[in-house]
Amino acid sequence: MSAETQPIIAIVPAAGVGSRMQADRPKQYLIIDGKTILQHTVDKLLSHPLIERVVIAISDGDPYFSDIGFAYPDRVFRVNGGDERADSVLSALNYVKRHFTDSWSLVHDAARPCVSLDDISRLIEQAQRHEVGGILAAPVRDTMKRSDANGSIAHTVERRGLWHALTPQLFPTFQLHQALMQAQQSGDVVTDEASALERLGYAPLLVVGRADNIKVTQPEDLALAKFYLRHSEGEK
């Protein structure tokens, strides 16, 4: 089976997502235009014609998830998440491995509802032709500073070749599962899926993504996400 014919399963780690939003609930359950951020994110993923289903890793005992609905409920599956992002992704990968022998797993942050379908298509097209897989990323445009222990500037960092890692990140399911398992067994902390592959010597592809693929982490991000989502309504 060629890479292009293998199913693509989206994974959304949403267990214990921290919030700096000054709200009474995790940020993925905050509302934008009548829908939670998680609904916006999942519905966007499932509106892409190449994504078969979404597996969401949710904290055991989460009181909010059961109260929300999705545009494609028969294609949304819940698994129990873990304390760390990698634990949640591994839990979802275990589900994917059981149900799809050969597949690609597309991991996307719950709090990135503004990802464009064009970006997802470009990632799938380029990453599936790459020997490892790839991630959406944005070149660093601003001057970068490294601080010292007192919060003062230690030095300026050369920005050439620096990228902001975004999601989705797309890898063959078995390969990603093995990489995350090995990192977990070694006690190594990996902050995204690409870093799990990197620690094994792989070099995932960087696929240029749009700057409006923001992650909602601060209260002011809600207004920006609302603007981008309204602007993208009717996207094909």
UniProtKB/TrEMBL annotation:
Recorded hits in InterPro entries, A to Z, give: IspD, IspD/TarI, IspD/TarI_cytidylyltransf_bact, Nucleotide-diphossugar_trans
Q: Which top-rank group of organisms is this from? A: Bacteria
What are the entry keywords? Isoprene biosynthesis, Nucleotidyltransferase, Transferase
Pfam families attached to this UniProt entry: IspD (PF01128)
Q: Which reaction does it catalyse?
A: 2-C-methyl-D-erythritol 4-phosphate + CTP + H(+) = 4-CDP-2-C-methyl-D-erythritol + diphosphate
Entry's EC annotation: 2.7.7.60
Which BP terms in the Gene Ontology apply to this protein?
isopentenyl diphosphate biosynthetic process, methylerythritol 4-phosphate pathway
Question: Which pathway does it operate in?
Answer: Isoprenoid biosynthesis; isopentenyl diphosphate biosynthesis via DXP pathway; isopentenyl diphosphate from 1-deoxy-D-xylulose 5-phosphate: step 2/6
GO MF term list: 2-C-methyl-D-erythritol 4-phosphate cytidylyltransferase activity
The cross-references to PANTHER family, in alphabetical order and at most eight, read:
2-C-METHYL-D-ERYTHRITOL 4-PHOSPHATE CYTIDYLYLTRANSFERASE, CHLOROPLASTIC
Q: What is this protein called?
A: 2-C-methyl-D-erythritol 4-phosphate cytidylyltransferase
Q: Which gene is this protein's source?
A: ispD
